Each structure stands twice: as C-alpha cells, then as structure tokens.
Amino acid sequence: MSLSMHKISVPAFIRGFAVLSSLIDKAEAFAAEKKIDQAVLVNARLAPDMLPFAGQIQRASDTAKATIGRLTTIEIPKFPDEEQTLGELRERVAKTVAFLETVDQSALEGSETKEVTLSAGPLKVTLDGVEYILKFVLPNFYFHVTTAQNILRHNGVQVGKLDYLGPLS
Amino acid sequence: MSLSMHKISVPAFIRGFAVLSSLIDKAEAFAAEKKIDQAVLVNARLAPDMLPFAGQIQRASDTAKATIGRLTTIEIPKFPDEEQTLGELRERVAKTVAFLETVDQSALEGSETKEVTLSAGPLKVTLDGVEYILKFVLPNFYFHVTTAQNILRHNGVQVGKLDYLGPLS
Hints:
The structure is a homodimer.
Chain A: H1 10-34, H2 38-42, H3 53-71, H4 86-100, E1 115-120, E2 123-128, H5 129-154, H6 161-165
Antiparallel strand pairs in A: 1-2
Helix pairs in contact in A: 1-3, 1-4, 1-5, 3-4, 3-5
Protein name (chains A, B): DUF1993 domain-containing protein
Organism (chains A, B): Phyllobacterium brassicacearum
C-alpha cells in the first residue's frame, strides 16, 4: 500500500464516520435504557463555548466534504445543519459517507501542490494540498470525532478506546 | 511538498507537541490567576475511566516514540510516567520533541511495507507501515491532543480552536 492524497484522507474519513455512527448507536441505546430524552445527548457539550454532540458530527461532515471541494473539481453536496435527533445525525453521517464513496482516487491526483486558502477569523493562510491535509484537515477531523466521543463518555455512555479506533483489520 | 512516511508523521507530532506545550502554559497561567493548585488540572479528567490531563500528554509522547520504534531501527528513549506538575509535563513534551528532531527523513524510508503487530487487550492485528500510521497512530495521537484540550476547556481554561490548530504558516 503506498501513499497518495486519497489514501491519507478519504479512507480515514470513512473510518471516522463509522466510529461516529457506532457512537450514535451507543448514545441511542443509552438514552433508551436510562429513559433520557435523546435531545440531552444531542445537545450535550463539554464547555459553554464548545459545540454540542450534534455540532461535532456536523463539522466532521463539513471538514470531509470541504477537503474534496478544495482539492478537486467535484461539486460537493450541501447538508444544512438541521439535525435534531440521533437518527437525523446518523443520516447525516450516512449521506457524507455515500458522497465520499463516489470520490475516486484519481480525482485527488496532482492535488499535492494545489493551493488552498483558509480564512476564518484571525486565521488567513495559503497552504499546498499536502500541508492542508496534514496540518489542518486531519487534526480538525479527529478533533471532532474525539470530542464527540468525549461528550458521550463525560455523560456516562460506555464507550472506550477500541470504539474510537474502530476495526483495524 | 510530497508525501512520505516521515512527512505524514514526525512533523505532525512536533506540531501537536507545540500545541500541548501551549496548553500547559495556559493551564499554568490559569492556575496562578485563580490560585488553584496545579495538581487539580494535572489530574483532571472527563470521565472516571479516562486518563487525566497528565496521562493524555504521556500517551501522546508514547504514541510518537513508539511510531519511530516500530518503523525504524532507532532505539527510542524511555520516559517513565512520573510527571506530577505542569513543569514536569512541559519537560516530557520537550524531551519527546528533542528525540523526534533527531529522526531523519531517511530513517523512515521503506517503512511503508514494514509489518507492525499491535496487541492490546482484545485487539491483535498486523498492519503495514502505511496503515499503522493512518489507522492507528494519527487517530490516537490526535485523540490525546484533543482530549488534553477538552479537559482544560471543561475546567474553564480559555483555549479555542486556533490554539488546537497551532500556527499554520
């Protein structure tokens, strides 16, 4: 197996969304077992100025889609942030994965040197495709997957490191 | 800039440790300002079965070192988990970075196909070098950096997404 722009991004996203999907399943089972309104978990957050569980999944979805939008000529789908239930979040994950699965390896060929300009608040920087994935996309993507898991663990849902890593073989 | 086994791992670690070092600085300033014993933050955790702030930094250090140990013939330093203060954690980060800076790009050449066997509890799997970094090392490494930040934010330390991303240019 050799390295490519596709290899370091799309399969990592799809694995991450499989993890998020299993977290949603565990949250759903926990809410049912404890007779808790699902909205409590959907809206749970670790700090007042952090995104809730739903927001972590929405931003993971956007991070993955934007990577394809910025590095290829593929038109990316728009998914408005309207999810309010665990079932709707599961659907957002599934739609994102369905899109990612249409992205062929060849679509990312040559994107190593494509320039990407990021602009958000005080941040304004231009990176090449490789740096964009390694310095921005992967740290961000894993931030959201990790924080989604941390929110559930903090709320007592039984998830552990093996849930986060997902199947490795 | 092109992709290599070194490129996708060592600079990402060094950037992550710069972020952890700045988190330690912010924790120190917060403890001083609020007159809180530093040990409160060093030992803070998000759930009873999760590692505290210190443990997140120790595991980030071990994840980075083990990557070099498993993919090269370089002998890796041992750092016992004895840190009890923010200053000692800063030193652990600095020692880890000093080691990583000695790892030349050439040391990782050819490690794409090197077999790595992971064994932890129910997990037992053999991956090639590329899969090991993409499926195990990077998700794990960012898990610990993110969770360290989440612990501080949950405790009221003012850190945000730009602290997590670190300098991008």
